[in-house]
Amino acid sequence: MALPADYHMHTPLCRHAVGEPTEYAAQAVKLGLPEIGFSEHNPMVRDDFDDWHMLQNDLDTYVEKVKKARRDHPTLVIKLALEVDYIPGQEDWIRDLAARHPWDYLIGAVHYVSDSWDMDNPKKVSQWKRSNVFEVWSTYFDRLTKAAESGLFEIIAHADLCKKFCFYPKEDCTPLFTRLLKATKQRDLAMELNTAWLRKDCNEIYPSPQIVQLAAQVGVPITFASDAHAPDQVGMNFSEAVALARSAGYTHCCRFTQRKRELVKL
Known about the structure:
By secondary structure, the chain is of the alpha/beta class. The chain has eight helices and eight strands, in the order αβαβαβααβαβαβαββ. The chain is globular.
């Protein structure tokens, strides 16, 4: 089976990944991937914001590393992108980052449900145990919906990241999912199927089959993402992701060039 492009992968500049971009590209060539995209965590408004985003002075270095991967692997299409955290009030910072380099796409993500709680951080799992799970999920999906509505991005990242540590609300979250997907469709964005979470506690592709089914019904296009933090994770579990997409009725996925989308057959 021909595999789709892998549009979500990281580098050591995020301070929690290993392997240079050229090594990720070599793995993609080995697997026969047609295209990849690097999407490092964006620099935040302050370098001391946390310990897992790229530092501001590393942004140009990141771009140069991706260019080197392109030179080293001229037969592979390699896209330049960012995974950008959406935090209300920081929209101007995102616009500033968007203007600095010729990005092929920006992936909008939510990790923070408050200014101090990145709810997928293993160091902060204890905060889940002190919180109302449905309220956390509601805040997360509200922020992700606002990210979609902002018009700042081309792709929505790991759309139910809040399930990472298996804290599931008893309440029906379908209205939260539907609101997000309607906003994503209205803004003409894509949603990624992210296989990294098959390597996490929840052991399920992000987003869940329910959300993928709803996205197909609404008409939200898709991309594929390994969220690789090491070269051997490139394209990992893509056969499962493609099977999930096809079971929901998808026949095409997206590719991006200079922030413009085209559809390609799955």
